[in-house]
Write a structure and sequence with these properties.
Blueprint lengths: L2 H13 L4 E3 L24 H4 L9 E9 L16 E10 L4 H15 L7 E6 L11 H10 L6 E4 L1 H4 E3 L4 E12 L18 E14 L5 E14 H8 L12 H11 L7 H22 L8 H20 L6
Parallel strand pairs: 1-2, 4-5
Antiparallel strand pairs: 2-3, 3-9, 4-7, 6-7, 7-8, 8-9
Helix pairs in contact: 3-4, 7-8, 8-9
The structure holds glycine (GLY).
């Protein structure tokens, strides 16, 4: 399935279930949202709706949001799946449906809509956190079991993995992720979801957006219970196109092909060439979208992020591995 088809399958699935399609917002968050420098998730343009400060245009929305995340920047190039810039597909409910329907939608689209093998799907749930004063998410566990996911494929994870927040403050909540087991070709027998290996590929996060996180770490219940989900388009493309890495999907292969043509090297000729071409492909997409959003290179804030990705993309070419023509 081409990436365009995956995006359309996702958005129409949710439109058919009463969601209004919302356009992707800018990579620059609105001026009243200073929690992050760039848009990091599909929920970010909808924060005011979760907080009850504004009325959403519909109580169910779906979108494909362009996102940019910097914490993993050093990982880009080294792994099959890390990116800075990506598209996040999401469905959102503002005070409407909650865990039960969200989880069932997640299962139905994964299995019937996208054709994943139910035996290969594992899920994670919030295992509780003493500091937050919250116990394990028994409700989510019960729903997954009712759908038919066996207990051994429901993994309880701590706050660091399964309590979602976009930044240090603002709307947040326990979450439940869906993973595809890609088999022993990608990892070991003891690997489990959340281990940060390539065997279990996280493809969809379901956030049960329940609290407003204060600067002092306190949780205040939001005016209503909400749903925020995020599916990485690039990861789903890798799964459905049967390729090991996001860089071999139709979203990246034209850029990799161009890097091969211009350097005279093959993507998989050496680990250095692979790493360099992944960095060039990811960062050139990211820098193009940053510039399109109005960011200019500088020494601070968003401008510094742009300068950093530009520098990282230029370095592999000038210093190391892509000079076959010279
Ligand atoms: N907002 C959900 C996620 O980014 O995982």
């Amino acid at each position: 399935m081409k990436s365009d088809q995956i995006r359309e399958t996702f958005l129409s699935f949710f439109e058919e279930r009463g969601h209004r399609r919302a356009p992707s917002a800018s990579l620059i968050p609105p001026p009243d949202d200073t929690s992050t420098l760039l848009t990091v998730a599909g929920m970010q343009p909808f924060k005011a709706y979760f907080l009850g400060r504004e009325t959403p245009p519909a109580d169910r929305l779906t979108s494909s949001q362009t996102c940019f995340r910097t914490p993993d920047i050093e990982e880009v190039g080294k792994t099959l799946r890390h990116l800075t810039f990506f598209e996040m597909l999401g469905n959102f409910s503002f005070g409407g449906y909650f865990k039960d329907e969200a989880i069932r939608f997640g299962w139905e689209l994964s299995v019937d809509g996208l054709g994943l093998n139910p035996e290969e799907i594992w899920v994670t749930v919030f295992g509780g956190d003493e500091q937050l004063g919250l116990g394990p998410d028994e409700e989510a566990i019960a729903i997954w079991k009712e759908i038919g996911v066996p207990d051994e494929r429901i993994v309880r994870l701590p706050r660091s993995e399964n309590f979602w927040q976009a930044g240090p403050t603002d709307p947040c909540g326990p979450c439940s992720e869906m993973y595809l087991d890609r088999g022993l070709e990608f990892g070991g027998v003891d690997d489990r979801p959340g281990d940060d290996t390539d065997r279990f590929l996280e493809y969809w996060n379901h956030v049960f957006m329940t609290y407003d996180l204060g600067e002092d770490g306190s949780l205040t219940p939001l005016p209503s219970k909400n749903i925020d989900t995020g599916m990485g388009l690039e990861r789903m493309a890798a799964i459905l196109q049967g390729v090991p890495s996001v860089y071999q999907t139709d979203l990246f292969s034209p850029l990799i092909d161009l890097a091969e043509q211009m350097s005279g090297l093959k993507y998989d000729s050496t680990p250095e060439a692979t790493r360099a071409m992944r960095i060039i492909a990811d960062h050139s997409r990211g820098m193009s979208f940053l510039i399109a959003a109005g960011v200019v290179p500088s020494n601070e804030d968003r401008g510094y992020i742009l300068r950093r990705v530009m520098r990282r993309a230029i370095q592999p070419v000038s210093y190391t591995h892509l000079r076959a023509h010279e």
